[in-house]
Each structure stands twice: as C-alpha cells, then as structure tokens.
Specification:
The protein is mainly α. The chain is 75% helix and 0% strand. The protein binds 2-acetamido-2-deoxy-beta-D-glucopyranose.
Length: 358
C-alpha cells in the first residue's frame, strides 16, 4: 500500500516535470481524458466504501441474534426430543458444543475481514486526498505571475490540509484496527480454548456432564460475547461509520475545490471567477474545522473504549495472528484470569477424564 502511494507520487511528479510550457493544450487534453464528466475522485474510493461496508454488514449478520441462537442450540430439549442418557445422545450433544467453537472461529474470521477491508478503505482515503492534491499540479504553468503566486499559496494550503487529513485518518485506522484485532483475538482464543477442552480434557459421555458443561459454556459465551460486542465492537463500528461519512464529505469538498479551480483557470477571468484564490486559508477553514471535530470525536471514543494504542506505526492486520491462539491476559479483559480452569466448579471438573487421571 505504501509502495503504491510512493509510486503514485513519483508518477505524478514525473507527469508534472515533463510538461513543458508549450504543452499546455496537451496537458489540458490529458486532464480531460483522465477524468470522466468532471469526476475527480478515483472510483476506487467509492468501491472501497462499498466493500468495507459489505464486510461490516456480514459481520453484523454473523453476530445477529447470538444470544437467542446459543440458547436454542444448547438447550437440551431442543437437541433431543426425549431425554435418554445414552452415549449416542451425548455424542450428538458434544457435536453441538463443537459447533459453538466453530461459531467463534467464524466470528473471529469475520472480524478480521472487516478489519482488513476498513484498513484498505482508510488507506484509500489518504491516497484519494493525495491524488486530488496532485490534480492541482496539472494546472498549466503558463499563468500571469500574480496568479502563479496565488496558485502556489492555494496549493500549500491544500497540501497542509492533506497532511492533517492523513494524520486524522491514520488515527481512525489505528483505533479501529486495534479494537478489531482485540476482538478477533478474543473470539479466536475463546474458540481455541473450547476446542482444547473437548480435545484434551475429554468430556465424559453422559448427559449430566454434557448439561453441566453446556451451562458453563452458555454462561461464559454470553458474558464474553457481551463484553466484546456491547461496547468495543460498537465503538469500532462507530469509528468506521463516522470516519466514512466525514471522509466522503471532505473528499467531495476537495473535488469541488479542484473543479472550481480548474474551471477558473480554463476560463482565465481570474478576478471574477477566482476570488477564493485570494483567500486560500478562508477557503479551507470549514474543512479544517470538520477535521478537528472528527479528531475530537475519535479521541473521545477511544478513551471510552479503554483500549490503549501502543504501537502506532507498527501494526499489520495481515500479520499472522492465527499463530498465536493464546495471548497475554492484558489483551483480553473479557477472558478472566486462568479461564477456564478457575471458573469451573469441582463437579464440572470431575466430568473430564483429564482431571480424574491426575
Ligand atoms: C447454532 O446452530 C447453527 C446450526 O446448527 C449454527 O450454524 C450456528 O453457528 C450455531 N450458533 C451458535 C451461536 O452456536
């Protein structure tokens, strides 16, 4: 992503430097060819909004009605019509319990997908802002001196805005991915713990034990699910949505400014069509205010989440989290100390062959 970004800058610089003053018409044609119907915003920007939003909806669908579903899936009378304490029935029930761990693996995967797509989107916001900035470079160079000065000034203001914009988007990205990674790891570890219990501790195949363990899982799954989703995931969704709305607005405003500037230059009647050029600062003021508001919002939300962002520039959602099923307890406020061992009753522990053999 960063490489693409640099390549983009280098390419744009190159385009600018090869434009000799005599090539004004070429450059105008070039500009007209590369933008359809005055659209200055790359289509990737909108595609990426749609894409990340789709993954957000997928995740929301996956988590919908969790509490009802787990109730339904684990209630013994819905699993069996009759209540016969035999081994096949128990095996069937254990299968249900395995499905629950599958659910958490899938939920973890779904969180990861959303994290990746929202990260992509945030990167594309920055690239879009930069490519809009570079459109100003396509303005033909042969301009009266005082207009050139005004243009330089306008460019600096927009460049300054782009830098601030990118910083705020980086913050949004950092906060969102930190929260999502935390939840992803939490779901994954919880699924792994369940898997490990069934595989290594070995539940006795009798319905009393199954029932006891199912109650345990029911209680803790609901607790962990609420802990992860009630505030943290909601905060990640809010951060994503508010950033998206603001970025859309800002990018459209930037597009408007570019279009207005290009029109003004093309028609050449500077004093009538380009009064905004005399006051670049004033022209960007509302956008700066909008950004400051967004930044404030991000900071307040982040404080609320209780998650601290430590490695600001050093994260990567794609890094292989799956190699680390068990994580430091500090990352897992929702998993209690020494879960599940300390939370199990003596009676429940006796339901596992593992503890009987000790
Ligand atoms: C409930 O069971 C269904 C079908 O057996 C499964 O697809 C779903 O993931 C389960 N949900 C939970 C929360 O265990």
């Amino acid at each position: 992503m960063i490489l693409n970004f640099i390549t983009l800058i280098l390419l744009q610089r190159l385009v600018w430097t090869v434009q000799a003053p005599g090539a004004i018409y070429n450059s105008i044609n070039h500009y007209k060819l590369s933008s359809s119907n005055g659209e200055q915003i790359p289509k990737e920007f909108y595609l990426s909004i749609e894409n990340s939003n789709e993954f957000k909806l997928n995740l929301q669908r996956k988590l919908l009605h969790f509490l009802e579903n787990i109730q339904k899936n684990l209630t013994i009378s819905t699993v069996f019509g009759s209540f016969q304490n035999d081994s096949p029935n128990a095996a069937k029930y254990i299968h249900r319990l395995q499905e629950l761990s599958m659910f958490f693996y899938e939920a973890s995967y779904s969180v990861e997908k959303f994290a990746i797509e929202s990260e992509k989107f945030f990167e594309i916001i920055k690239i879009t802002s930069n490519s809009l900035l570079l459109k100003l470079r396509q303005v033909p160079k042969a301009q009266p001196t005082h207009v050139k000065l005004l243009l330089t000034n306008y460019f600096s203001e927009m460049e300054f805005f782009h830098i601030f914009f990118s910083e705020v988007i980086d913050e949004a990205l950092e906060y969102t991915t930190t929260i999502l990674q935390t939840i992803q790891k939490l779901f994954y570890s919880y699924a792994d713990i369940q898997n490990g219990i069934l595989k290594n501790w070995k539940l006795k195949h009798n319905l009393e034990c199954c029932k006891l363990y199912a109650d345990f899982l029911h209680h803790h799954s609901a607790r962990i699910f609420k802990c992860a989703t009630a505030d943290k995931l909601q905060i990640a969704f809010d951060l994503y949505s508010v950033t998206k709305i603001n970025a859309k607005y800002i990018v459209k405003q930037l597009e408007f400014r570019i279009q207005r500037l290009l029109n003004c230059i093309n028609f050449g009647s500077y004093s009538i069509r380009c009064p905004f050029l005399n006051n670049a600062e004033g022209d960007f003021e509302t956008l700066f205010n909008k950004l400051s508001e967004l930044e404030l919002y991000l900071n307040i939300k982040m404080k609320k989440s209780g998650i601290f962002v430590t490695n600001i520039r050093n994260h990567n959602v794609n890094s292989d989290l799956r190699k680390l099923p068990y994580l430091e307890s500090s990352q897992q406020a929702c998993l209690l100390n020494d879960f599940p061992y300390n939370q199990m009753s003596k009676q429940l522990k006796e339901c596992f062959y593992f503890f009987n053999s000790q």
